[in-house]
Amino acid sequence: MRLTAAGRELLLRGAATLGEDLSPTIHLFERLYARLTSVNQKINLTSLREERDIVLKHFLDSLTCLTSGLLEGPLEVVDVGTGAGFPGLPLKIVRPSLRMHLLEATRKKLRYVEETCALLGLKGTAFIWGRAEQVAHQPEYRERFDRAVIRAVGPMGQISELCLPLLKVGGYLIAQKGPEVAQELEGVAQGLKPLGGVLEEVKELELPESGDQRRLVIIKKVAATEPRYPRRPEVIARHGLF
Q: What distance lies between CA 40 and its chain's CA centroid?
């Protein structure tokens, strides 16, 4: 399925409100759209089916990460739980100098992302199969990355515990959340301490065109994470850090 003229215009217009000119890369988004909608008929990659929803809630929503100002230059970035490649693939398209590592526990989704990167000719990408709580204890990945991005579906305490051990000191976690995140940040300062993190900013923004409220939670890694973190998933669920 091809992106329609209306979908193309929506993407260009929405990106422009974020300060991004997608004219040089629009052909890659068109190919990404065609690939996603085709494979999604065979593999459940996304529940979104309508063109407008995919453009707004996958493509443009991913690009809101750029408003952090923290994704410029040849950085080592890990997209934790990338799923069908969001936010990692749109970010890589628009910022090709990023060295994007896409981490996903579901093998068929990671295979899709790997094949899609090859199809789009996205160089400087790597693929990590596994769960974040296990990968973060592997020496080759622990405290390796400059940035971690995540489309966050769980509480910020759990997200922080999974992502901060992957970051080097001086790195940043950029978590995409909804407006309800303020309630999740009670006790954040004390909770982040053993992870080596400090809350730097909660950036308020609106999704282009739809006006849906979004938040970017930005956490800086200022010290090494204590070795026991992240804990097992069931422990994290029962005993949150905040």
A: 20
| CA atoms within 13 A of residue 167's CA, in its CB half-sphere | 30
Q: Is 104 within any annotated ligand binding site? A: yes
Is residue 178 a known part of a binding site?
no
We report the CATH number of the domain holding residue 124 as: 3.40.50.150
Domain-located, residue 50 = no
Its domain, for residue 92, covers 65-238
72 is in an annotated binding site: no
Query: Is residue 127 part of an annotated ligand binding site?
Result: no
81 is in an annotated binding site: yes
Whether 223 is in a domain gets the answer yes
The answer to whether residue 46 is domain-embedded is no
pLDDT digits (tens, 9 = 90+) for 30-75: 999 999 999 999 999 999 999 999 999 999 999 999 999 999 999 9
Q: Which residue has the higher pLDDT, 11 or 240?
A: 11
Strand order in the sheet with 213-221: 125-129, 99-104, 76-80, 145-151, 167-177, 213-221, 197-206
- Whether residue 106 is annotated as binding a ligand: the answer is yes
The number of domains in the chain is 1
- Residue 12 forms part of a structural domain: no
